[in-house]
Design goal:
Helix content is 28%, strand content 29%. It starts with a strand and ends with a strand. Strand 12 (208-212), helix 9 and strand 13 form a beta-alpha-beta unit. The chain has one domain (2-254): Ribonuclease Z/Hydroxyacylglutathione hydrolase-like (Metallo-beta-lactamase, Chain A, 4-Layer Sandwich), CATH 3.60.15. The strands form 2 sheets. A 7-stranded mixed β-sheet has the order 6-5-4-3-2-1-14. Strands 7-8-9-10-11-12-13 form a 7-stranded mixed β-sheet. The protein is built from 9 helices and 14 strands. It is an alpha/beta fold. It binds zinc ion (2 copies). One zinc ion (ZN) is lined by residues 10, 58, 60-61, 140, 213.
């Protein structure tokens, strides 16, 4: 199994994962054109995509869906409670509805949707399994939910939100209610909360950690990486650390 991140931050998120004969997009929060160019840089085309898995309906996760679903005609997998929102946005797409905790088969992948805690309609994280390995995919969550930890035990790779540094957030000049939202239990994971996730699920076969959804204003790649590296050093853990960025492709990481 392998994953590449076409873009990630509060301004737009899209990843591609592939195993066996199956290639999936996870979130499509950038333009269809950028997705096509990103896929081309990964050596694949839009025609190679078998499905699109959506985490939740915020624009930075579905902004490209209407155009993209028209172009690809592939099935869109999302929470059943998103049915009306997405049908309004992309009425011609074919949908398959997911239930947190109930796994589905998508081509060569087993996909387990898991509940996360975010101010959206039934937001989902995922565990993707194929080729005998598992990838946890957790973004846009204000806290570590009860469902999350058991589902993430034993993953070989983890795509994980590391949204903000608390000091930078408080010094950002943002309105207090926005700061409260971001820090709240329906908001986003800070660098240190991301570290807590890794502390709780680290095991000897966790090979890759991809830090994602960094806020451009309230975090920096260096700051997020340093916070997670401190945790890995503390655990004497050799996992390889990757940072997903908004404007640069994170090329294929082989899980
Ligand atoms: Zn987001
Ligand atoms: Zn969101």
């Amino acid at each position: 199994m392998k994953i590449a991140v076409l873009a990630s931050s509060s301004r737009g998120n899209a990843s591609v994962i592939a195993a066996g004969k199956t290639t999936l997009l996870v979130d499509v929060g950038i333009s269809a054109r950028r997705i096509r160019l990103g896929l081309e840089a990964c050596g694949i085309g839009l025609g190679d995509i078998h499905g699109i898995c959506i985490t939740h309906e915020h624009t930075d996760h579905i902004g490209g869906l209407a155009v993209l679903s028209g172009k690809t005609k592939v099935k869109v997998y999302c929470s059943r409670y998103l049915r009306n929102d997405l049908r309004e946005l992309a009425p011609d797409a074919a949908y398959a509805f997911l239930e947190p905790g109930t796994g589905v088969r998508i081509g060569d992948f087993s996909v387990l949707p898991i509940s996360v805690s975010h101010d959206a309609v039934d937001p989902l994280g995922y565990v993707f399994e194929a080729d005998g390995v598992r990838l946890g995919y957790i973004t846009d969550t204000g806290r570590i939910t009860r469902a999350m930890l058991p589902a993430l035990q034993g993953v070989q790779a983890l795509y994980l939100e590391s949204n903000y540094d608390p000091d930078m957030l408080h010094n950002s000049g943002r309105p207090p209610e926005l700061i409260e939202r971001i820090e709240g239990q329906w908001g986003h994971l800070s660098n240190s909360q991301a570290g807590d996730v890794v502390r709780q699920i680290a095991h000897s076969d966790l090979r890759h950690i991809i830090l994602a959804h960094l806020s451009p204003e309230c975090n920096t790649p260096a700051c997020a990486a340093a916070a997670m590296q401190t945790v890995l050093d503390e655990l004497h853990h050799p996992a390889e650390l990757h940072i997903a960025r908004q404007t640069e492709l994170l090329p294929w990481v082989n899980v």
